[in-house]
Amino acid sequence: MYSAEINRTQRACLLLLIDQSYSMSEPWAGTGMSKADQLALTVNKILGNAVLLCSKGDDRIFDYFEVGIIGYGMDVGPVLHGTDLGTPLIPIGEVARNPKRMDQLTQKISDGVGGFLEVQTNKPVWVDPRFNGQTPMVKAFGTAAEIIDSWCRQNPRSFPPIVINITDGVSSDGEPTDVAWQIRETATEDGNVLLFNVHVSGMPNPPAVMPNAPAGLPDAYAKMLFDISSELPPQMLEATAVAGYEVKPGARGFVYNAEAHMVVDFLDIGTRAVTPTGLKELTDGRES
Amino acid sequence: MGIRICAVAQSMSKRGRSDAENEDRVAYDVGSGRFAVADGASTSARSEVWSEILVNAFTRDGVDPLAPDVLDRLRQAWWKQVARPGLPWWAVEKLPQGAAAAFVGLTVRETGYRVRAIGDSCLFHLRGEEILLAGPLDRADRFSRFPALITTRPHAAATVAIWEGGGSYDAGDVFVLATDAMAKHLLQDYQTAGRLLPVAKYLESPEAFGDFVARARENGMDNDDTTACVVQT
After folding, report:
1. Secondary-structure breakdown of chain B: helix, strand, coil percentages, each rounded to the nearest 5
2. A68 and A161 in contact (C-beta within 8 Å)?
3. Which domains, and CATH codes, for chain A?
4. CA gap B19, B9 in Å, rounded
5. Which of residues 80-139 of B touch A (CB under 8 A)?
6. Which residues form the VWFA domain (chain A) (predicted)?
């Protein structure tokens, strides 16, 4: 299980669900930005990194996986540029070639011989910050369930989809447990869909990072998010440990009261997991 | 009187990939007794170019690519080959991350042999069915997802992770250089059967190697670019 080869003819799937409710306009502790701004920044950065994972440093992009983003707030639907209700998932190569816009930034890069060059770089943007309305998480999960059910039927031998839900609040349209389980019970021949949940920071409680038991979680809502989150498969558990997190066997893909860097790390591991050698760590001779 | 050596090498890309996508490289120069294999890391940038630079430096130019002064020059050569105007944004961002590769280089002289390596591309010194030396990794369970690699990143030290071996050999001894999938497979089989698979036989032709690799993959060898070089003394 969770061992299917990922390649261009047997792609993987990554689906992000991002909370765009009004409360996302509030500050994200430690970032100096609103949650919506920081989340859009993070998602754009992660998508950019994912493109780089599928690049060899020339014109080619290898379509190792398909990606989609469902936003939920005033509306529920695809928010990744280039997607719509009829095509909620697109190959990563299309993501690379078709950003919403390119923002110009000044950046220092290596000159390849030990120095640095200050250059104007173009940073792609696929998602803009948005915040409005309530938190219709049940409807968002329902939309995700339909998308991944269809994908699994079309890709029965593939690594199962990874669905990552990022929210700062409590569902406003009911209890999402049933539809979350519907997602988790969807499967390819290689295993059940992996559903992970990230609750972003806003409260003074300490974060709970990929726990393997609900003990210590502050309330019933946190315990519900823990319950509906999948266990990390071994290779993701290992990558999470390498990223510096103390994880135990049985750890769930769940972060409660997450700080911004944790969301970056979590999305990074998720995107690397859907590329063939993305979880392989490269060292440069400092380790043996 | 010079030593009598013959060598043969084969390489095959990962199943589902074209030959052009193979990031392994092998090169040898029987006259100078130098043999090398490099395995470019798939996640890094233009690693096939880096692999080629490493093996050619060792066999054709007769230098040690792991020596700091040589390494600096090779890193510049890599950058010169891969950076060009008009690249798309993802290539512009990817290239500064650099290339990475495992490398093993073997020098055979009348007086003995010497090997220097980084990572999980391995050398085996064989006498009959016995392995006299294997390294940098000598057991199948020592292969991991975290190999040390030689990179194009400026100032990244190579010296800490260099594995060195060598010694004397007898006429008739065989050396095998192999990238990780093949090296691990050979060690697994050796641990089970107590003898190394007859690698030279599988390298007689591209077809023979293709058949061997296909069978080995069916029997659990990792689906990776696969390269071997056999040196018969």
Report:
1. 35, 30, 35
2. no
3. 12-274 (3.40.50.410)
4. 15
5. 82-83, 87-100, 118
6. 13-201
Residues of A in contact with B75 (CB under 8 A): 112-113
How far apart, in Å, are the Cα atoms of A219 and each of A51, A208, A226? 38, 12, 11
- Please state whether beta strands B122-127 and B130-135 pair in parallel, antiparallel, or not at all (unpaired): antiparallel
User: How many Å apart are CA B56 and CA A126, to the nearest integer?
Assistant: 42
DSSP-based three-state secondary structure for B222: coil
Predicted pLDDT at A180: 97
CB within 8 Å of chain A, chain B residues 163-222: none
Contact A157/B at CB under 8 A: no
What does the alpha-carbon distance between residue A127 and residue A234 come to, in Å, rounded to a whole number? 31
Q: What does DSSP say about strands A12-19 and A65-72: parallel, antiparallel, or unpaired? A: parallel
pTM recorded for the entire structure: 0.84
How far apart are the C-alpha atoms of A277 and A281, rounded to whole Å? 9
Q: How many residues in chain B?
A: 233
Minimum distance, in Å, between the CA of residue A57 and any CA atom of chain B? 4
A157: how many CB neighbours lie within 10 A of its CB? 11
pLDDT at residue A283 in the model: 46
Percent of residues, chain A, with pLDDT higher than 90? 58
Q: Where are the beta strands (DSSP E) in A99-201?
A: 101-110, 116-125, 162-167, 187-188, 191-192, 194-200
The full DSSP string for A101-115 is EEEEEEEEEE-SSS-
Tokens of B121: 């591309």
- Give me the residues paired with residue A13 across strands: A66
Residues forming beta bridges with residue B126, ordered by sequence position: B131, B174
pLDDT at position A36 over 90: yes
Close Cβ partners of A190 (under 8 Å, ≥ 6 residues apart): A1, A2, A3, A4, A157, A158, A159, A160
What SS3 state is found at B195?
A: coil
Reported ipTM: 0.84
- DSSP lists the bridge partners of residue A120 as A106
Q: Is B154 on the interface with A (CB under 8 A)?
A: yes
B136 upstream amide cis, omega within 30 of 0: yes
Opening angle at CA A140, ends A139 and A145, nearest 5: 95
- Can you list the residues of chain B whose pLDDT is less than 70? 1-3, 157-160
Q: Give the number of C-alpha atoms closer than 13 A to the C-alpha of residue B63, restricted to the C-beta side.
A: 15
Which residues of A20-75 form beta strands (DSSP E)?
27-28, 33-34, 65-72
Q: Measure the CA–CA gap between A60 and B70, rounded to whole angstroms.
A: 30
